[in-house]
Structure formats: structure tokens, C-alpha cells
Design a protein that fits this description.
Oligomer: homodimer
Largest interface: A-B, 73 and 73 residues
Largest sheet of chain A: 7 strands, mixed
Strand content of chain A: 15-25%
Radius of gyration of chain A: 20 Å
Structural class of chain A: alpha+beta
Number of domains of chain A: 2
CATH topology of the largest domain in chain A: Phosphoribosyl-aminoimidazole Synthetase, Chain A, domain 2
Helix content of chain A: 25-40%
């Protein structure tokens, strides 16, 4: 069995650090942000049996635990720079560590995001990544920034991750091919980093410093997550439930299920953002430039609360709730 | 039972953030280091049953999980600025959360160190703090910086935390008063932040930019931890085992136990540092100024390896090993 120090050396120490002044192997890592830039910092903890099933593919898990953190940077519009990894493992099992590190670093390298430190210990499988991004002051996409009249946009598609979970649980019957296709969204989310950075940039903006105003990433279901924007901004919203972009597998399911899983799924890791109406074309251009589909799904209102309509614009009463890590499961 | 959001709001959101541009409640926290300063970053994960006993006093645990991270900043010479907290809890138990938050924030406030974000989830009790400190470039106390001829110093005293553990395990018989006194060192370590900052400052330095050269914090036992300095610096050391400063309870134990627990205890959270001989008086002055006892225990040698002597200077063969989180326990 590998010792703690051998484990760190073998799987997590790579070439000489480039960006960090001092990386793994001292009491602290040293990180100097580019002059004048703010650091955006986010931390997500994934627990076996809670965020992933026992026996989950370690390579996909390595991808996902970094992806959900990068998704938080994307929601702020920050450029990924570095991350720390704290890992509790039942045993230092190389058959698990090797593919885990592979999945982790494949995604990290895609964004030139450097592992600069962390901790490993024995314990129930728990993965905690803290990620660091850079952002110019005044360019953060904050939850409190939505304004009445803003368009509400969604990146990519929603609901396939939730559908895959329904398949695993036996709530829904899916063909093997559909289950596999939907499961990719559950296990290998792609953080919308390029889109987030474009939305936080001034490119194409005519009102304010950024293209989008408020943004967040949808991790616990749109209905629960957008409530954070509405509350922080002191506004409401009217959304067309039938405009919500369903994932390709979910799109072939009955209407009621499409509505439920797009509006209140979970594990989507898409961006929900608001932008001035005057930025409509510029948002579409940013989406084209970054190769990220976006869909306009509603409008921010001055009146508090979330209102739903159907495709015909008729009011609709949806009984949906977001995911809460203590009350659910 | 409190929901995840209510829990965060009730126990972890405090007054408006002062230092962070944006604190808890958005996708990321925003942190702007002082102009020209580097960030020192460290992350430690504490797991129930591994780093603390089931049923451990939550207030002391709140203190300790931040203290061990601040100790890493101290070992680098950095000034504490902020931290994130990721917490997996079996249930959102307010009788646990309230004292935990109290112990955590009492220590945080002592160093004006701000909680800027994190994550809470359901799972086996696991606490992961990532801490941020500031440091002027060129002033970090690095493990690789020791040089032959340097004095080796230890802050405070060693071994009482290990003695408390021996008492709990029944390895040693201690009076109730001794057990209690030793246990304070185990449960409520005091990070040597002021001393670390003084050692990293240029005040009193005549050789180089800093008062000390190499430093680390002793968490897994001196013998194992100093090996990291020796290896990183490509040097060796000769230490007087009888010069090692024993904790007040351990000091009344037999010689063999004193030697074992000062040299290879664990959970000490004292600093081990090296400094040029020419800085001897200035180190003592920094210790007085910061109210931190320091003891000179040996010398860095050019020849690799760690050599022990007794108080008379006679060579001594000690069979001791540091603590490894995967091979032990």
C-alpha cells in the first residue's frame, strides 16, 4: 500500500508548477494573481453515496469533481487558474487513484488549471476541491445584479442528468442506449467556462461593463437555483416552461416529464443568466463564438415571485421544488 | 431540521464581509490580495474517527480545524486573511453546529480571518478548510531553504498532545488533572502565527531577506516532519534529543517517554525552523516580542541524514517514525 507521501508524489505531483510561485510539497502553495485582478474562489465537496454512487467510475468522478467547481467559476465569469484537492480515501488503492487522477487532469489541462496543493487522508470517500479563477474588478456576474426587463437565458440543455438518475432508480424505463446517452450528462458535465468568460467581458456590451448581468450555474434544478437570483436581486421572473431546452433524450419523453425535469432536475451544470434586452444579439454572438447553445426562456419582472407560462403564454401552476442536501434523500 | 440554505444563513453568514469583495451566497467568493502581495494557500481535511474521536466536543473541533490550517500559514510566515469551509454532516444538528461555529469564529476573529465561502452537505462528519494568507514576494519560509550551519529551533513545547492520546488509549496512566492539562494541547492547539510572521519579516535579518530560512509546522511528529526540510534542502541535521522542549505534563514523565513523545509525537502544531547562526539574538528577540518561547535544539549539516545526540553530546540511536495517514491506525 502506498504511504500518504508516495501517493501524493506518484499521482498528484506533476511537472514543475508554472503559474504558482510554489506548488505541492510545502506548508502552503503560493499564488500571485495577475496584477489588478481579483480571485474568484469556490469550494464544492462531493461525498460517496450522496453525490455519486458507491463504485462510481473513478475517471468520470475525477472529471466531475473538478467540473462542478469550474462551473462555479463559469457562473461568475472567471478564468480558471488553479485548484487544491482534499481527498479522503478508504485505502490508497492505485486502481482507483490512477484513473481518478487521469479524469481530473484531463479536464484541468483543458483549462490550463493547475493543481497547487491539498491534503490526502484515510476516511469515507470524500472529495473537496477549492478552485481559483481570475476576474477583472467590476466584471463578476453576481446573483444580485438582475434587473426588471432583463431576458433570462439558459445555456445548453437541461434534464438529461435527472432522467439518467430516474433510470437508475427505476422511476423511468429507458432503453440501454438512452440510459447511456443521458448518463453522460450526469457523470461528465462540461462546465460553461468559455461562455461565462464571454458574458463577463465587455465585448458587445452597451449597458454596463458586462454582457450579462446576473448568472449562476444550475446544479440543484432551475426552479430552486433561479430563486437565488430573484431573492438576491429583489425581483421576480416569468418563464416559459416549454421554452426550457430539454436534453436530447428527455426531449423524446412525454410533456409532463419534460417540464418537470427541465424545470426541477438537478446536476445540469448549465448557466442561467440575465442580460439586458439590448444585448440580445450580442449574447447570441457570444454563444456562437464560444460554441455554446443558448436559449431565451423568459423575462425578469419587478414583481417578486416566479411565474410560469406554457408555450402559448397561458399561466401555469407548477408544483416543483429544488434539491436540498439535507431534506432530500 | 434546518435546510442547507437555512443552516448556512444561521450559523455561517455573519456581518457584511469586510475584506472580501463578495462573500458567502454567490457562486464564488471574490478576494483581492493587497497590491503586490502573494497569496499563501493551504487545505487540511479532518475526518471523524481519524483526526478526532466520534463525539468530540464541537466547540474545540471548530477551533482545531481552523487552527491546523492557520498553523500552515504560520509555517510559511503568512498573515491570515480568509478561509473557506466545506462541511459534511450526518444531519444538520443545531446542538452541534452552534458550538462548532462558536469555536471556529472565536479563533478566526483573533486573527481577523474571514469566512468567505464553502459548501455544506450530508455525509460522514468531515471538515475541510482552505485558508488564505498574504505574504510579500521573497519572504516565504520554504522547506527547501535550510543551509548547513543553520541553527534548528522549535517553538513552544512538544509531546503533550501525544501524551493525552496515550492516556485516552490506556497506553499511559495519567492523573485526571494531567490528562486534562495534556488534552488541551491535543484539542486546542494555538497556531504560531505571530512568530511565523516575525520570522518571515526582515526585522533583525543580516543574512537574506528573512529572519528564518526554512520552516514547517510539526503535525505528524518532529522526526517525520523535519525529514521534509532535510530532503527538500538537500542537507542533514544533528539534534539533541534532550534539548527538545517537553510539554509541562510530559516533562514529569520518564526520560524514554519524554524522548519518544517530543521527537515523534504528533498534533504538536509548533514551528520547526532553521535560521543563520548570525540571527540567534534576533530570533530570541522575535520570540520575546511575540510572546512565543523558542528553543535551539541542533544544527543543520551538509551530510544528509538525521543524527541524534543526548544532552552530553553523545550519539544516540533512536528508532522513531513519523505518522502516516495511510499506514498507521
Amino acid at each position: 500500500m502506498l504511504s500518504e507521501f508516495d501517493l501524493i508524489k506518484k499521482y498528484f505531483v506533476r511537472a514543475r508548477p508554472v503559474r504558482a510561485a510554489l506548488g505541492i510539497g510545502d506548508d502552503c502553495a503560493l499564488l500571485a494573481p495577475s496584477p489588478g485582478m481579483q480571485l474568484a474562489i469556490s469550494s464544492d465537496m462531493l461525498v460517496e453515496g450522496r453525490h455519486f454512487l458507491p463504485g462510481a467510475d473513478p475517471r468520470k468522478l475525477g472529471h466531475k469533481c473538478l467540473a462542478v467547481n469550474l462551473s462555479d467559476l463559469a457562473a461568475m465569469g472567471a478564468k480558471p487558474v488553479a485548484f487544491t484537492l482534499a481527498l479522503a480515501l478508504p485505502a490508497s488503492d492505485e486502481r482507483w487513484l490512477e484513473p481518478f487522477a487521469q479524469g481530473l487532469f484531463e479536464l484541468a489541462d483543458q483549462y490550463d488549471c493547475e493543481l497547487i496543493g491539498g491534503d490526502t487522508t484515510k476516511g469515507p470517500l470524500t472529495i473537496n476541491i477549492t478552485v481559483f479563477g481570475e476576474l477583472a474588478p467590476g466584471h463578476a456576474l453576481r446573483r444580485a445584479a438582475a434587473r426588471p426587463g432583463d431576458d433570462v437565458w439558459i445555456s445548453g440543455t437541461l434534464g438529461d442528468a435527472r432522467l439518467a438518475l430516474a433510470g437508475y432508480w427505476g422511476e423511468q424505463r429507458l432503453s440501454a442506449a438512452d440510459q447511456e446517452a443521458a448518463a453522460v450528462r450526469m457523470h461528465e458535465p462540461q462546465p460553461r467556462v468559455a461562455l461565462g468568460m464571454a458574458l463577463a467581458s465587455g465585448e458587445g456590451a452597451v449597458e454596463g461593463a458586462t454582457l450579462a448581468r446576473a448568472a449562476l450555474d444550475i446544479s440543484d434544478g432551475l426552479v430552486g437555483d433561479i430563486a437565488h437570483i430573484l431573492k438576491a436581486s429583489g425581483v421576480g421572473a416569468t418563464l416559459d416552461v416549454d421554452a426550457l431546452p430539454a436534453g436530447p433524450v428527455l426531449a423524446r419523453q412525454p410533456l409532463a416529464l419534460r417540464r418537470e425535469f427541465t424545470a426541477a432536475g438537478g446536476d445540469d451544470y448549465e448557466l442561467c443568466f440575465t442580460a439586458p434586452r439590448a444585448h440580445r444579439e450580442a449574447v447570441l454572438e457570444a454563444a456562437r463564438r464560444t460554441g455554446t447553445p443558448v436559449t431565451r426562456v423568459g423575462t425578469i419582472d419587478a414583481a417578486p415571485g416566479l411565474r410560469w407560462t406554457d408555450a402559448a403564454g397561458a399561466p401555469l401552476a407548477l408544483a416543483l421544488a429544488g434539491f436540498d442536501h439535507f431534506s432530500a434523500g
